[in-house]
Amino acid sequence: MRKFAFVFLFMALLCLATPVFAQTTGGAAATSSTNWVAITAGFSMAIASGLCGLAQGRATAGAAEALARNPAARAGIQLALILGLALIESLALYTLVIIFAKVK
Amino acid sequence: MVEQLPFTALLNRLFAGPVTALLHALGFHVENPAAPMSNAFAMEVLVFLLLTLFFVIVRSRLSVEKPGGLQHTMELFHEFVVDQSHEIIGHGSEIFTSFLVTLGLFILGCNLIGLVPEFESPTASPVVPLGCALVAFFYYHYHGFRRQGVGKYLLHFAGPMPVLAPLMIPIEIASHLARVLSLTIRLFANMFAGDMVTLVFFSLVPVAIPVLFLGLHVGVSLLQAYIFVLLTMVYLAGAVAEEH
User: Fold this and answer.
1) Residue A19: is its pLDDT beyond 60?
2) Chain B: closest CA distance from residue A21 (Å)
């Protein structure tokens, strides 16, 4: 029940964003000199790399602990670790590709 | 217009006429008829020629009693792929070995050739990893059809229960197409980012530091070639798996 209270409170807070409707339609960064695309690109890459680092850290920690418990299973653990790390890495790389596709 | 590498210029000088005629006959528009072949394509041709030469030399020097260095290298790679595929795919994985070894050596060669001055990695251009990923995609689907029959293979896209089929089929199609995308982008972005980061550090500190990134490039080349082949094996295992 308390969860619903938080949801409704959040939705009510979103109504504070009404100044958004005062925007004029038009091209991006037509009059302002701030390069929002580059700033967003920097932030998004930082967030992607940070989360990728956290996830790879958890994967490595799990693999190291499993190897410590059962050194005989080294082959399987190593395979799972390498596969997992590469798949997590590729998620951060998708962000990089979008940046290179969108930032001129 | 990107400037041509020496090998690209050589290939264009020798073969520009026939290649342009072939492309026009197939209906493609060529921007520069004197240089129809791009750097990436020329590098791929070079890796292909080097690999063919390597295979021919190994084959001609095969010996049971006194194996030479090249034979040891080839056996190392071959045994590695055989062991991995046996672990992942199970029995009946021997027929895939030749394709997986060739794919792995091609990607490894393409990645590593970027380290040599005056050559660049063809895998740093987005179309080359796309080609490798499409080849792997069609290969594992072909073997899925061959091993399980057309009807049974298509049926397994519907999921474990027939009532779930309208939900499972779009999800399965999307996930299979996402495999091609992820294989492509993983290989391309790793090679491209390696080049970018080397250039950035070269512009900051022109001496000594960029060498570290070339070392990183070697490590990443090996790892990405291994991951590509490993994921192809995993997809093959999924395609040819039989429920016991």
Assistant:
1) no
2) 36
CB of B232 within 8 A of CB of B140?
yes
Nearest C-alpha in B relative to A80: B230
**A79, part of any domain:** yes
Give residue A66's domain range: 35-104
Measured distance CA(A71)–CA(A76) in Å, rounded = 10
Q: Is A9 on the interface with B (CB under 8 A)?
A: no
Query: Is A65 a member of any domain?
Result: yes
Most A CBs within 10 Å: which of B88, B130, B186, as the mutation test of the A interface? B186
Whether the CB-CB separation of B5 and B119 falls below 8 Å is answered with: yes
Task: Tell me whether residues B227 and A97 touch, CB distance under 8 A.
Answer: no
Q: B104 with B151: CB under 8 angstroms? A: no
Contact B189 A83 (CB under 8 A): no
pLDDT tens digit string along A23-43? Answer: 544 444 455 688 899 899 999
Contact check, Cβ <8 Å, A94/B185: yes
Query: Does A86 contact B186 at a Cβ distance shorter than 8 Å?
Result: yes
Rounded to the nearest angstrom, the gap between the alpha carbon of residue B124 and the centroid of all alpha carbons in its chain is 12
Q: Give me the number of domains chain A comprises.
A: 1
Q: What is the mean pLDDT of chain B?
A: 90
Give CA separation, B196 vs A16, A40, B191, B210, B214, in Å: 42, 19, 9, 11, 11
A85 in any annotated domain: yes
* Spatial distance between the Cα atoms of A77 and A85, rounded to a whole number of angstroms: 12
Comparing CA positions, the residue from A82, A54, A52 lying closest to residue A67 is: A82
pLDDT tens digits for range B76-116: 999 999 999 999 998 888 999 999 999 999 999 999 999 99
Using a CB-CB distance cutoff of 8 angstroms, which residues of chain A are in contact with residue B185?
A: 90, 93-94, 97
Q: Which of A75, A79, A93 sits opposite B190 (nearest CB)?
A: A93
Q: For residues A81 and A65, what is the distance between their CA atoms, to the nearest angstrom?
A: 12
Q: Å from A7 to nearest chain B CA?
A: 30
Higher pLDDT, B199 or A77: A77
Q: What is the CATH number of the domain that holds A48?
A: 1.20.20.10
Residue A50 resides in a domain: yes
